[in-house]
Amino acid sequence: MPSKKQQRQALILDIIANETVNSQDGLMRALNDAGVQVTQATVSRDLNELRLVRQLNQQGELTYQSLDTDVDDEHFQVNPSQTRLITSIEVIEFMIVVKTANSNGNRVAALIDEANFEQIVGTLAGHDTIFVMTHSAEEAKIVSQQMQSWL
């Protein structure tokens, strides 16, 4: 028998597939309507574990959708179809500035976060730009070189 978490996450995937959900509050309401009481923190963790991010849908609305990634237990690989989303990578001291196709900043930042680079302290995404912070200029160069294969 599936655990409560597995049942909840299956329900989340079903809701995302069949409804337009554009916020964590909206997802919490949909879960509540289905009889599942959750906190915002639980929804946030579930979205992360399920690799669901807000992306523009065909109607131009930001909605939760699944990332297209190939992940195994040892290494994260960006799906080749995702590589066209990155247009440039530039190192500035201990930061990396990643430019993306329009409306793909959050999507690519999620891919970078999923890559689990030990040198990355954090990412900050906008519409088409991501700031990737590392501890040092040397670490930024290392990460940037690895990310160059994504271009």
UniProtKB/TrEMBL annotation:
GO terms for cellular component: cytoplasm. GO terms for molecular function: arginine binding; DNA binding; DNA-binding transcription factor activity. It comes from the Bacteria. GO terms for biological process: L-arginine biosynthetic process; protein complex oligomerization; regulation of arginine biosynthetic process. Keywords: Amino-acid biosynthesis, Arginine biosynthesis, Cytoplasm, DNA-binding, Repressor, Transcription, Transcription regulation. Pathway: Amino-acid biosynthesis; L-arginine biosynthesis [regulation]. InterPro entries: Arg_repress, Arg_repress_C, Arg_repress_C_sf, Arg_repress_DNA-bd, WH-like_DNA-bd_sf, WH_DNA-bd_sf. It is found in: Cytoplasm. Residues 85-148 form the Arginine repressor C-terminal domain. SUPFAM superfamilies: C-terminal domain of arginine repressor, Winged helix' DNA-binding domain. Residues 4-65 form the Arginine repressor DNA-binding domain. Its main location: cytoplasm. PANTHER family: ARGININE REPRESSOR. Regulates arginine biosynthesis genes. Belongs to the ArgR family. This is Arginine repressor.
